[in-house]
Model the fold of this input.
Amino acid sequence: MKDNYSNKHEELMELGHDPVPGYRPVFYVIMTIASLYLALILIKTL
Done:
């Protein structure tokens, strides 16, 4: 059985988007809260 993609040299298309301001700080805040919550659970189980 031949691979259909082995002989084709098609260019890959890349989807791009403009960055939306404000998402990075929110991401860091949520990750910090989640990490503290998991640390609290770990401390309580010891």
